[in-house]
Specification:
single chain, alpha+beta, Nuclear Transport Factor 2, Chain: A, 6-stranded mixed β-sheet, elongated, 3 helices
Length: 184
């Protein structure tokens, strides 16, 4: 079968268009991955800045510019929902401790999810979730799962050794550190 000039031209144009579309699809996929990576880096930086500021005493960072209005903190007693509920929950740390040192050991993630490995140190000088001040030092490490949405914190869930925390707050003398994960 002989291909005439018109059919040959159509075949060549089709191949060229296919190549262009294929290249654009690949570039589009690469661009989407790059955009997602850039957004994740922005979310991570914003998240770290918010909590470093808050634990340094700047409670104004807990606001609608940084948190979804229906933000959730997952706890054993149920979800806390809303900016004020989240602020009140975390105020327990500021009210309960002095000499706070908060370190983000590592943070990573993908898409709108962040995993944060942290260490919290402080002296228990105020009421902390109903526990009267003991004057004891707390050195606690844990992990927080975070969900971001539209560049704002949408959900958090903390994981740490509750027994270690209670033991440190209730000890009678001398400093103890039960959960030293800093050497990882």
């Amino acid at each position: 079968m002989k291909i005439t000039g018109i059919y040959q031209s159509i075949l060549i144009i089709s191949l060229i268009l296919f190549s262009i579309i294929s290249c654009n699809s690949s570039n589009s996929g690469d661009r989407n991955l790059l955009d997602a990576k850039i957004q994740f880096e922005k979310d991570l930086e914003k998240y770290e800045n918010i909590w470093n500021s808050f634990l340094s005493g700047d409670t104004t960072v807990v606001n609608k510019d940084n948190f979804q209005t229906d933000v959730k903190v997952v706890t054993n007693e149920g979800n806390l929902v809303g900016i004020e509920a989240v602020k009140n929950f975390y105020m327990n740390y500021l009210n309960g401790f002095s000499n706070i040192e908060f370190t983000i050991i590592d943070a990573f993630g993908q898409g709108d999810k962040i995993v944060k490995h942290w260490n919290f140190k402080g002296v228990h000088t105020g009421v902390f979730f109903g526990i009267p001040a003991t004057g004891n030092k707390l050195d606690l490490s844990g992990t927080t799962l975070v969900e971001m949405k539209d560049g704002k914190i949408a959900k958090e869930q903390d994981f740490f050794d509750m027994q270690s925390m209670i033991s440190q707050l209730n000890k009678s003398e001398g400093d103890i550190v039960i959960d030293d994960y800093m050497g990882m």
